[in-house]
Amino acid sequence: MSTGQEMQPFTLCCARVRGKNKNTFYPDDRVVHNLPELLEAVQFDHTPGTFTDRHRNNKTWCCTECLTFDVDNDPGGPVVTPETIKQDFPGVAHYVVYSRHHNAPKDGKPAAPRFHVYFPTGLLTDAAAVDNLLTAVLATYPYFDQACKDLARFYFGVEHPTGDYVPGGLTLDQFMTQQQIAPVVSTPAALPASTGSAKVWAGRNDRMKSFAFAQLRRCGPDGLAEAEAAFYTEAAKDDPPLPDAELATIWHYAVQNAPAKIWNQPGYLTPDEYATRGLPCEVLQLKLSDLSEVAEGAKFADNVVGGLLYNTSLGWLAWDGCRFAPDECRARLLAQLFTERQLKAAAADLQQAAGAAAQDTENTELAAQAKRAKDVYSVGRPYRFYRLLPNHKAGVHRQTSIENRCQCWKYPNKAPRLSLYQR
């Protein structure tokens, strides 16, 4: 069974019961990134919609990131299987989860394949547009249960669910737009359909959702006001802008889901932690064993173990809380923060050595070297490292770069390039 690690994430609202059709309370948001997470979520009654008061109702429907359809294979029609869905929706990413009555009699009907299909979409906040999209899908593919048009529809949980996923480069709304069957989201009435405004509208919606999450990640849980101001400033750049009600829905959705998607994820750093840390909590020794690039690369690797990897095919990989993902910017940030820590440590050692040299009136050569090293350090050129040799015999500055350090980490057997900085 494939886990579907590359699928677009989406949220299901789940109840805390199974098989209770009169229950309307769905308090738990389950963010689904892959098939195992989906199978865990669908053990409870669930709905793809999000509701403002956590009670499943068309009047309180807020938004959705997924459209779900039910295949019952009622008698009298052709038998639809997951392979049928794959052929009818080429290139569209989706999950299939078999229902409680899969290959078993149901309500007096004979046994047949019965399953639910989950199509991740972009964030959809316009109820009328979603209704139009569902209507178009159900009209074109009538083997889906027509009751799926209900925005507040729920699906019974399955005690021991099984399923599979089908990867693809398209979401359902994108596929339907390409087929010119239904718009992604509603188009302002004043704009003709031929302008392609519906696609632009959907793009802005997804962009603002991504921007909202980016600002919440940047500002952290204590910086909501700053993040909200940045969100609405960015929204004002659109021409025409999204309606205020839709922007408010997007922002409310992002704030509601930020703890699960961002702040509570392993490895997340608050702005204060990001500014002062960026490296593992327990920073190891910063001094080099020698003045080679290899030593610097090895020391850097020791201090970012578990947070950064290098792969010759993929480049720099940074841990994002769930996996190692390509992120060269993160690698550069960690290298820069590591450099700053080394410089601070070197400055402290330098100050201590200068004080010792000043008190050693008999060793004029050492005092002169300490003064010269202090002058060189004060120039402030980036990425210089200082190391005091044993017994204060000499002070050396050397100049290097993030690129050189990373090269030596990637290729530890490469001959070291020693470059002493001399004034």
General description of the model:
The protein has 423 residues and is α+β, with helices and mostly antiparallel strands. Helices cover 39% and strands 16% of the residues. The strands form four sheets. It has a five-stranded antiparallel sheet with strand order 4-5-7-6-8. A hairpin with a 4-residue loop joins β10 and β11. The radius of gyration is 29 Å and the shape is elongated. It starts with 9 loop residues before the first strand and ends with a strand. The N terminus and C terminus are likely disordered.
Which key phrases capture this entry?
423 residues, 14 strands, disordered C terminus
Radius of gyration: 29 Å
**Considering DSSP H and I runs of 4 or more, what fraction of the residues is helical?**
25-40%
SS-based class: alpha+beta
What is the mean predicted local confidence, pLDDT? 75
Tell me what portion of residues adopts beta-strand conformation: 15-25%
Distance between the termini: 64 Å
* Structural shape: elongated
Instruction: List the quaternary state of the chains.
Output: single chain
